[in-house]
Amino acid sequence: MAENRAAELNGGDDEDEALRIAIAMSLGQDPAADRNARDDAVVDLTGDRDDDETESGSDDDGDGNEPIVTKPLHVPSSPRKPQDQGQQQQQHQQHQQQQQHVVPSSLSGLAALGIDRKAMEQERLARLNKRKASSPPSEPVELRPQQRQKTLVNEGLGRVLQPSKSDRELPSRDVKIGGDGRVRPDQPYNNDGDGSGTAVPLVIRGEQRSRLPYPRGVVKKTWAYGHARQGDDIRIEEVLQKDKLKLAVLSSYQWDDEWLLSKVDLARTKVILVAFAATETQKEEMRSNVPRERIRFCFPPMLGVGSMHSKLQLLKYDDYLRIVVPTGNLVSYDWGETGVMENMVFLIDLPRLETAEQREAQQFTAFGDDLLYFLLAQGLNEKLVDSLRNYDFSETSRYAFVHTIAGSHSLEEKWSRTGYCGLGRAVKALGLGLEEPVEVDFVCASIGAVNDSLLSALYYACQGDSGVKEYESRTAGGRKVKDAKLGQDDDVAAIKRHFRVYFPSEETVLESKDGKDGAGTICFQARWWEAPSFPHEMLRDCKSTRKGLLMHSKVIYVSRKPNPEFMGVETGKSAVDMDMTGADFAYVGSANISESAWGRLVKDRGTGKPKLTCRNWEAGVLILATGLENSGVHSGSRVPSSLSSSLARGDSKSMLHQFAGCVPVPMAVPGQPLSLQGPKAPWFYQDS
């Protein structure tokens, strides 16, 4: 029955509904039980205050211009048991069995917990007295997932792990925009505040930043149980740092609330959940079943059947703000605790501006502007959003915040800032726009009804186009139609030679640690794959470099097209002479490859002007690569002949070497092309 329902979805165009059905089926639930149930959680940001201050704020739903379709928090069943052996298997199996007692709720998982406020306060006071009497904590130790007591906040994990010394931050790289509009990473960063050649003057000096874990930003893979740590991964405990976390603004598409509450200490941390509820009644039920002084909600406006798919986190500590952009949801398996799934996460720590002079000196970055624009659009408390200006955003000038805002955007100043239009705008603003071809490698966990239109729009956006190029070729009228169609066909054929999408084959899923049981959130429909309009030649098998893991990451790697003339193979030019530095970048965020995630620019029937329609809320960040520094190519050095030849052949694996030490490449490249049928065909959740 569930398969029939999935096959009848809106002509096969609603990949979000299909993903919800896939998740329900993988968890042994009936997707027909409540079609309106959603997995998104919307949260209302409250005032940026200390714990001893009165908290003011509202649970406003936004400006009310768009219809609000709310969805309940989804509490997934426990992740599947990893196939480890020996004592590890027994210990981890106990952990899994304990998690399997969590009962999914058709309403809010927080409501299902039945929080007893009086008992919670008594427990808080008992913990406080215990801490006062206890000795200082011991040194951090490596912890496996453990059995949890059935309490509101898990006390069994012990001291929160701190980032290890082996963790590598993004290279310290000051950026400057050159005369041709491209980023020059090796030129000195202006530290005097005169603004010459820089986006923002520094207002926090180096010694203050050195105390922060990630003052310049970092991209890491999520830790995975059973896999040795290599310095490029991170655990959820290391992200949240619950022992000193004061305020947490958390967003997710799926929620395991009991697991989440074991990762924060409600006695010291206020939690704001960006969540989704199906009705106003459900919103009130969710609010009434949590301690309002510690947990609050914000419900962003939605468009039709879209999803609150953003995973953005804002974490406040005493003297800095941590901005986190993960690809995973707030469930145990997305953060590696079952050893079957991996994700990616971007983090940056921003120091607090302590004086009025520092705050006045700060020139807010484009990253900061777009972040605040996104938060306000979600309906978060304006006072809290404005309080983010109390933190030094100068180090974010090397990045761009890329988002999708659910709704219909008719004004150019709005549609140009979000979806794939916003992606192109961000690429151009960073000085990365190119007219020549680029190589695009897109890692995703869900694929929608992709066609040439979406493919072209995303590719042009990666070149810095604002969305107009594909829109004009698609909407050209009169005698221009035929010529435009011919030109578009030629362009699409060329694009497909430079665009690869990484998605697991059926064989890869079945050979993974948990087999098909671990692929409940990997979503693609056979009917979309079999459609004549689907660009089959783009798909590559997505195999993790960590054996047995499946991938829930959403990453786009964009590189210059390699060719002998550009690479200087014959002339022996240096990397700087060839202007390779700063040309490559990656997107890390929540957006899969679908129109729901990136939007569609159409002609407004009323005005005849462009209008962008988006279903989802998404959040991501653009990160510049460091050139080929970690592949033996440094400023002024010669390109090794073997590497030049490899790049000239268009070897994707060599192309992605420039991301080493900057953005992890979690999949084996170049991936093997997928087949129309057989074990090398894509994984289809309906066949499970």
Automatic annotation (TrEMBL):
| GO cellular component entries | nucleus
Query: In which residue ranges is the amino acid composition biased (Low complexity)?
Result: 84-101
What is a biological process (GO) this protein takes part in?
DNA repair
Gene3D superfamilies to which the protein is assigned, alphabetical: Endonuclease Chain A
Q: Which InterPro entries match?
A: Tdp1 (IPR010347)
Q: In the record, what terms sit under GO molecular function?
A: 3'-tyrosyl-DNA phosphodiesterase activity; double-stranded DNA binding; single-stranded DNA binding
Task: Note the superkingdom of the native organism.
Answer: Eukaryota
Ranges of biased composition (kind: Acidic residues): 49-64
Give me the ranges of the annotated region Disordered. Answer: 27-115, 128-200
Q: Where is this site: Interaction with DNA?
A: 594
**Active site positions, chain numbering:** 309, 552
Residues bound to substrate are 311, 554
Q: Where do Basic and acidic residues bias regions lie?
A: 32-41, 165-185
Its recorded name reads Tyrosyl-DNA phosphodiesterase-domain-containing protein
Task: Say which species the protein is native to.
Answer: Lasiosphaeria ovina
